[in-house]
Amino acid sequence: MGLEQFKNRNVGTQNYKTLDVGVSPQTGMERFKQVAKRTVKGELFVGLGVVMKAMVKALFADDMHTVKYPFEKMPISPRYRAIHDMLRLLESGHYRCIGCGLCEKICISNCITMDTRYDENQRKEVSEYTINFGRCIFCGYCAEVCPELAIVHGQRYETASEQRASFSIFEDMLSPVDQLNLQQEYQGFGAVSPNADENIKQTPLAY
Amino acid sequence: METTLVETLPHVTWVGVLIKAILILAIISAIAGFGTFIERKVLAWMQRRQGPLHVGPYGLLQLAADGIKLFTKEDIVPQNANKFIFMVAPIITAATAFIALAAVPVFPDFTIPSWIPLLGDTFVPAIAADLNIGILFVLGMMAAGLYGPLLAGMSQANKWGIIGSARTAVQFLSYEVVTGLSILAPIMLVGSLSFVDFNSYQAGGITSWLIWQQPVAFVLFLIAGFAETNRTPFDLLEHEAEVVSGYATEYSGMRWGMFFIGEYANMITVSIIAAVVFLGGYSEGTLGLAILLKVAFFFFLMLWVRAAWPHVRPDQLMWLCWKVLMPIAVINVVITGIVMMV
Amino acid sequence: MSKVNIKIDGKEFAVNEGEYILNAARANDVFIPAICYLTRCSPTLACRICLVEADGKQVYACNAKVKEGMEITVDTPTILQERRAIMEVYDVNHPLQCGVCDKSGECELQNYTLALGVDSQSYRIPDTKRENKNWSSVLHYDAGLCIVCERCVTVCKDMIGDAALKTTKRGGEALDKEYKASMPKDAYAMWNKLQKSVIAPSNGTESTECSDCGECAAVCPVGALVSRDFQYTTNAWDLSRIPAVSAHSSDGFQIFYETKPASIEDREKKIFRVTNEWNYVSLDGAARFAYDFENRGVTKDPEAFDKAVAAFKQAKTVRFNSVITNEEALMLQRLKEQMGIKLYNPEVRKFQKFLGYYQDASGNSLYTTDTDTIMKQSDFVIAIGTAMRNDSPGLKYAFNNVQKMNKGAGLYFHPVGDTLIPTFGKSLLSFTHKVGLEEAALYLLLDLFADAMRLPEEVSAYIASFKSSETKTIKEKVMKSVTETVVDEETGESKEVTKKVPEMVTKEVSVERNGLVELLGGDAEKFEETFAKMMKKKESFSLMVGEDLYYHEKAENIAHLIALIEKCTTIDVVMTPPKSNALGVALICDLDDEAEGYTIGYNENGDFRLSALGEGDLDMPAMNQQEGTFTTMSKRVVPTNAALSYGGYELNDIVSVLIEGQRETIDWTPLLPTAKGYRAVAFDDLPNGYTNEGVENRGYLLEVESSEVAVPTIEKFDTSLVLEGEIVYRCNPARQFNDFTDKSHEIFEAFGLYASPAKAESLGEKVEIVFENGTLVVDVIVDPKIEGDITKLSDFKSAKDVYTLFGESRYKTVTMRKV
User: Fold this and answer.
1) Cis status, amide bond into B233, omega within 30 of 0
2) Are C621 and C359 in contact (CB under 8 A)?
3) Chain C interface, mutation test: which of A97, A122, A128, most C Cβ atoms within 10 Å?
4) CA neighbor of C19 nearest in space, from C40, C48, C49
5) Above 80 in pLDDT, residue B107?
6) Which of A57, B93, C667, C759 shows its CA 20 to 30 Å from the CA of B196?
């Protein structure tokens, strides 16, 4: 399916078809006729038929839409913006953050704070880093602005916790040094989800 | 019309009636509870969902979990509520629903086997109280059930409750008329108000079912039954989108649960009446399976309709009742009368 | 100053004559890019991007002066090409570590690279390894980031006077020859120089041994020079800038406290650094690095407050120092007026008296010039009685700047020899005289500069009495022409050749000997000649007067002498208020000579102590925690703002209980005494900035009144007052002024006895100094810039009560014992 029709936003020249909704009854007799017609026509039973068909399909054709959530999870888009991950350099295992402070600056809810210092190797070291998830609106600017791809949005969307601080510690967000092979790059804002092809359907716009 | 059946049956003792009553209470309560489970499951399937799944096998114990929840929830009585009436109202609903069942043949009669001590050889009748005005009693009791929601809504000092109880009064009273009139035609044909007589009248197999003679009455009764039991598309009393929870807004815990049980008991009552009056009732030979299937069908129909159809507006409801159903019912009675005369 | 008309990009401007094109453009809001130029320093011509076209010729705007009718084009296609090439060259091998660089977006290299649209790099050369270095306790130099614009070198030489930095060899590879042909000319020349040089301490070692003022770091356009303490701690954009006044020296430098929450745990704001408008004001080390003296974590303690009120009610004296705002000084003055409490301030009292003598004798309500005017106009400066390096960095900068920028000359009179000051300029004469001869120095000035017509006769006669004429036999080298006959070896021809041959001749000359010069330790023989050279083309003369004179036994006579100098010569005078707001206190408070009875000490010793240092009986806000005004050496009332929050009580709260107070401390600002030259201006209406032309627009100038008075009578000086023996001079090390500078973590100068290396060796590590009224055991610290035997004893710790030991003077003869 081509995307031309979606890209054409020039409404004026599009070929709309108008739906024939008929005329509203005016006189009593007309109204009576409409009622009678609708009663006999059995539209109500069509409705019954539809749901019955759905049930039969659900039960016998395995057309069930339920995802048994805590046990099964839907694949989420790589663009999904959940709790941040701080990534490491794959070669050295050192965290990527250089402490430039751009995330702190760009954060529109002012929830990122960092302390930096001059370290023994004459480099800038991030001595403390915290995100206040009570305030974070997961807008993704921090990941967008990060010049080192150090802070990214992870896939941890289950953020219920007893304490706000549960997710905000730098070490918690940092990918574990022994699981560097599992470290996921954030695909970014333009990325498509892994199951994007399955999800493509005709949307009403395409009719 | 003389009833000959009673003479052929063993004598109905008070023990038998008591056993029957306890059975009804226990089984119907259980079924009402189970009904909620069935409803959730069926609705889920019709919406391609799974429904309750995790509590017990296939989620069967969900209703136990719900029961425990309802029983252990705090019983809240609003500060400005009329406390006594507020507390009594759910009991009225539940009580009337079960009392109505007293005159309904819930399942066939049987005799307790003689090897069971104490109760051996006790005859348990099909109907706890085989009144010869059974139908009148059931309809009357269901009508009295109106007091439950009505009083509940008015006593709780909540505007949604007031609206809910106003709707109760309007809806129940109006459809009482349709129920009565629609069932009048079969009564005229059978010539009795006893369910046993209805059962006997249709004992000759499917062809003798009253539905064939009174299709219009059947449809009318079904529609009115939906309204009486407060089911979609006529569940205006507690329509969430409009009046939060209507008369039940301020109820919690088991008091709310009693409304629930009452509603499901009423659904069963209506299903049984419909089955007995129009679909041949319980036939002797099938060990009550026939009546069970028929009741189950009506119960299922109610869920099915809920899954498929939208609500109507209160004004549409009234319009339907007074301008459509009531006239048809009257005409039906008249036509039936004329046919009988001729 | 006369104006000339020029046209920049077609627009007409009237600008000051003799101005550089760049400054003229800046004054009129026209942007000409420039990296290496500093407004008050000499053009370096390192960056060459200020290239403009003037009357059809390409000139450097920082170096070319405006002429009448000049037509200037800022951007021409060739110039833009040139500038772009220069920026590309600057970007060659510049590390791309902008993310961590401390400039964090304030980088001029970044700005110009973007402004000139450098989007590709055409040049390349192998990089040279350049090391990071710590040059001193405060300076960090990242040679990798350095673009060798030499601003640091220039400011250190032309403004600060330390000349502690220079360019040195980088050891980079030579440029590819083909660039010479392909590159724009200036860019190539600039690159050629850049590739060869890097900045290093000028003394050839790894450390600068300078006054640690940090001005070099302030002017650095990139992140190459930063304060070690600030490095990598925060980004510039996170800091809020609070305009304030340096609370330490009496110069009243405008500074900006830059604050941010201290850390993730501690959200209370903290000062991370101090910055300045380095084009218009240069800071000393105390102003820049002594910033964290705040009284932190103070809450209101009503009990202590009640005790304080009770203490004031029974107090006979309030002892305080000059670290106080005008407003608080006024409050104390009101307490004195209404409650009869004595005000005791030994730091300021002598200055106040001296000022009084001067006012009486001269008819001027205040001295006549200031450091800014000196820098702009003066070409001959004289300093008497001030250890400039320690007492008054502003004077030092002005003194130095005049030598460097105004082709100036200078005379420096001080008993303690200083190796730095003579290096300020070539026509500078430094007199290391004996203690007590300050009057003689002033007489010498009268002799040298006074208009003989205006000088009272007896004074002329007195001065003449020091002069003697003598005939002296001197040997002189004379070139004598000798004619010789030389035989050419090849041709055999003989030639007559005239040669000049030196010959020593004895000659008798009459020499004017100036006894005063001799007395002051100068070379009387050569003085006349040297001075004549110094006086060439000099028009504007200034005299800097320091603290020594206020503490002089004959301070009154000295004040009269100064008044006479002003009257009879064209010399303008500036006096250094001893510390912080000494001038404000001197003008506002009626100070008493003695403390008596129950004493309240405000940041000083006392029976009840109000303290902003956090150790008194009631906490007070420190200078970076309060609003108010200062009266600076430049006779200016300048506002300072609170950089940090303060939760406790202020002096105003106490005063409000005792007498009628004001709602806020700054409500006292309009009440400052107009009789003393203050104006009734609300605090919030005080401006605080500099115009593009560099004109100071901070607060307001005190009204100076002058009235005609009789010519002051002066006494002859008395050589018997000269101190002999072991002399100690009360003088703080540079960057230390008071307890507050001492509290700051970036000030490392210790309390002790500072001595020249030779003297220190003879004294040992620790000495006990025996005064008439007490003894003190101190460490001996070497100050290589001191010459001679006089030692400097610090006074910045009020707990040591050095003022009491010294009593009425700044020099004391003492006995020293090794410990």
Assistant:
1) yes
2) no
3) A122
4) C40
5) no
6) B93
Residue B161: which domain range? 5-341
Neighbours of A76 (CB within 10 A): 13
What is the identity of the amino acid at C7?
K
Question: Which residues of chain A lie closer than 8 angstroms to C237, CB-CB?
Answer: 101, 105
Instruction: Say whether domain C720-818 belongs to CATH 2.40.40.20.
Output: yes
Decide: A and B in contact? Rule: 3+ Cβ pairs under 8 Å. yes
Over the stretch A25-83, which tens digit does the pLDDT of each residue have? Answer: 889 898 888 888 877 777 778 888 989 998 898 888 888 888 888 888 887 877 788 88
* Range with the poorest average pLDDT among A25-29, B30-34, B74-78, C153-157: B30-34
Residues in Cβ contact with C135 at an 8 Å cutoff, skipping those fewer than 6 apart: C141, C201, C206, C207, C208
For the beta sheet containing C11-16, the strands, ordered from the edge strand earlier in sequence to the opposite edge, are: C11-16, C3-8, C71-73, C51-54, C57-60
Please state, in angstroms and rounded to a whole number, the distance separating the CA atoms of residues B200 and B214: 17
Distance from CA of A71 to the nearest CA of C (A): 38
Is 80 exceeded by the pLDDT of residue B119? Answer: no
Can C365-469+517-575 and C720-818 be said to share one CATH topology? no
Sheet holding C700-701, edge to edge: C628-631, C636-640, C700-701
Identify the helix (H) or strand (E) that includes residue B113: none
Taking each helix axis from N to C end, the angle separating C108-115 and C77-91, rounded to the nearest 10 degrees, works out to 140
The CATH code of domain C365-469+517-575 reads 3.40.228.10
Task: From chain A, pick out residues whose CB is under 8 angstroms from the CB of B305.
Answer: 48
Architecture field, domain A83-182: 2-Layer Sandwich (3.30)
State the CB neighbour count (10 A cutoff) for residue C467.
13
Q: Domain segments of chain C: what residues?
A: 365-469+517-575, 720-818
Q: Is residue A100 within 8 angstroms of chain C, CB to CB?
A: yes
pLDDT along chain C (819 residues), means of 10: 89 91 93 93 91 93 92 93 93 89 91 92 89 92 92 94 92 87 90 92 91 93 93 92 92 94 91 94 93 92 94 93 94 93 91 93 91 91 92 92 92 92 91 91 90 86 85 74 72 73 75 84 85 90 93 92 91 92 94 92 91 91 94 94 93 92 91 94 93 91 90 85 90 92 92 93 92 91 92 90 88 90
CB contact under 8 Å between A99 and C100, yes or no, is yes
Q: Are the C-beta atoms of residues C618 and C305 closer than 8 Å to each other? A: yes
Distance from CA of A36 to the nearest CA of B (A): 10
> In chain C, whose CA is at the least distance from the CA of A168?
C264
Q: Tokens 């990918």 appear where?
A: A175
Q: For residue C644, give the nearest of C369, C363, C244 by alpha carbon.
A: C244
Are C and A touching by the rule of 3+ CB pairs within 8 Å?
A: yes
Give this prediction's pTM: 0.78
Mode of pairing for the β-strands spanning C380-384 and C409-413: parallel
Of A47, A59, A68, which has the smallest distance from its Cβ to B45's Cβ? A59
Residues 3-42 of chain A whose Cβ lies under 8 A from any Cβ of chain B:
35
Residue located via tokens 């009734």: C680
Q: Tell me the domain boundaries of chain A.
A: 25-65, 83-182
To the nearest whole angstrom, how far is the Cα of A195 from the nearest Cα of chain C? 36
Total count of domains within chain B: 1
Contact C402, C410 (CB under 8 A): yes
